Amino acid sequence: SNVVLGGGQNSFKILANGGSVSGHGGTVQVLPTTGHVRVRATTAIDVSAIGTACGACEAGSMQIKSSKIDTAANPAPTMVLPALVANGAGDGSGGLIQFVSTGNINLAGVAQAIGGADNGNGGSIDVKADTGIVAKGSGFIVAAGAEGHGGMINIDAGSGLLTFDGKFDASGGTGSGNNF
């Protein structure tokens, strides 16, 4: 059967945040053996470090692996809120967001792995599909904190086409930007 993440009927969200004062984000893996994964418009998975007194609280990581991954399905044809979040806190780096599909990936909305507001480096977003990627109205954000370096965005559409209409941001603070 299908896995549905985010708000709405017959769906759920996964939070693996760090503590409210300190602590690192957790690890989430969504690995259904059958069906596909659908992510709706609200924050579906959050592995951020959210501490308010962090020296360097690192974000966690998430992996979504399925025969089909769809973040553009109804009732959310376009997502403006970040649906997949792995942000650092303080000097902590952004985390890892990874999509892996043996079929295709259809994305709409935002995935962000932003470094902590002080000196955190941006995280990584890795999207790999064997038969193509369609990303419309999407945003992949791995920006850094005030003095950190930008993160990394890797996209591999396999033997299929990559169709993208959105924004990539791997900018650095006073540090350097990074790669796409």
In words, what does this structure look like?
The protein is 0% helix and 40% strand. Strands 1, 2, 4, 5, 8, 9, 12, 14 and 16 form a nine-stranded parallel sheet that branches. It has a five-stranded parallel sheet with strand order 3-7-11-13-15, with no helix packed on it. Strands 6-10 form a two-stranded antiparallel sheet. It has 180 residues and is mostly beta strands.
Summarize the structure.
By secondary structure, the chain is an all-beta fold. It contains no helices and 16 strands.
Write a concise keyword list for the protein shown above.
5-stranded parallel β-sheet; 40% strand; mainly beta; 180 residues; globular; 0% helix; 9-stranded parallel β-sheet
Q: Cα distance, first to last residue?
A: 34 Å
Number of strands: 16
Specify the helix fraction band: under 10%
Low-confidence segments, ≥5 residues, pLDDT <50?
Answer: 74-81
Oligomer: single chain
Q: How would you spell out the order of helices and strands?
A: EEEEEEEEEEEEEEEE
Overall mean pLDDT score?
77
Structural class: mainly beta
Main sheet?
Answer: 9 strands, parallel
Radius of gyration: 15 Å
Number of helices: 0
Taken from the alpha-carbon principal axes, the silhouette is globular
Strand content: 35-45%
